[in-house]
Amino acid sequence: MPSSSETQPLRNESAAQQLRRVHAPPQARMRTIQECTPLGAAPSVHTTLEGDTTPLVVRQTWKERKLPFWVASHRRRLMALNPSYRFEIWDDRDCEHFMRTAAEPWVRWAYFAINPSVGAARADIWRYAVLHRCGGVYLDLDSTLISSLHEWL
Fold first, then answer.
1. Which DSSP category does 48 fall into?
2. What's the Cα-to-Cα distance from 148 to each of 16, 45, 50, 135, 145, rounded to whole Å?
3. Among the listed ranges 69-73, 115-119, 144-148, which one has the minimum average pLDDT value?
4. Tens-place pLDDT, residues 105-143
5. Which long-range contacts (CB under 8 A, 24 or more apart) does 44-48 make?
6. Which secondary structure element, helix H or strand E, spans residue 1, and what is its range?
7. CA–CA distances in Å: residue 75 to residues 57, 60, 101, 123
8. Are 77 and 149 in contact (CB under 8 A)?
9. Residue 64, CB-side half-sphere exposure with 13 Å CA sphere
10. How far apart are CA 145 and CA 83, in angstroms?
11. Nearest alpha-carbon partner for 59 in 141, 138, 134, 129
C-alpha cells in the first residue's frame, strides 16, 4: 500500500501523472536488464504479453551449469511447451552475484547468513528476491507441466 506521501498530489501535477506515479507497474520501477541476467549470458529485453508487465522469462536454478540428464530432459520439455519464453539457468555463482549486487540489504543479509552447504534454503531466498526485482516465472527444474504457462498465467 502506498504511503501517504506517495498518494499526495504534487503541485502542478496532472491527475494522469499522479496515477502513473502511484500505480506504475512494478517492472518500470525495479529492474534493469543486466542485473536480471545470469553471469555470462547476453542481456536481452524481456518480452511481455500485451497489458501485462510480467516478462516472458522462466528463471531456474541449479548448483552448477552442467545439468544431470534427467534435469535437462525436464527442462527441454518445459521449453518445448513454452517457446515464447526465455529460459535462464542460474547457478550458485549467479545467485550469489545477484544477491550481492541487486538484492535489498536485509534480503542480502538473510541470504548470506545461511550456510552455503544448505543450498536449497539459499535458493528459496534468491527465488523470491529475483522475482520481486526482475519479474518473470520461477519453475523448479524437476517441474512438469501438462500445458503451456500462457494457460496458467
1. B
2. 36, 21, 17, 18, 7
3. 144-148
4. 999 999 999 999 998 999 999 999 999 888 899 999 888
5. 44/86, 46/86, 46/135, 46/136, 47/84, 47/86
6. none
7. 13, 9, 28, 18
8. no
9. 3
10. 14
11. 138
Helices and strands, counts by H and E, the chain: 8, 3
Digit-coded pLDDT (tens) for 30-58 = 344 567 778 777 665 555 555 666 788 99
- The residue type of 134 is C
Cell of 37: 541476467
Rounded distance between C-alpha atoms, residue 99 and residue 151, angstroms: 31
75 is written with which cell numbers?
Answer: 527442462
What does residue 152 show for φ and ψ, rounded to 5 degrees?
-95, -35
Name all contacts of 126-130 with Cβ < 8 Å and 24+ positions apart.
126/61, 126/90, 126/95, 126/98, 126/99, 127/59, 127/61, 129/98, 129/99, 129/102, 129/103, 129/104, 130/36, 130/59, 130/90, 130/95, 130/98
Q: How many whole angstroms separate alpha carbon 50 and alpha carbon 26?
A: 16
Contact 41, 90 (CB under 8 A): no
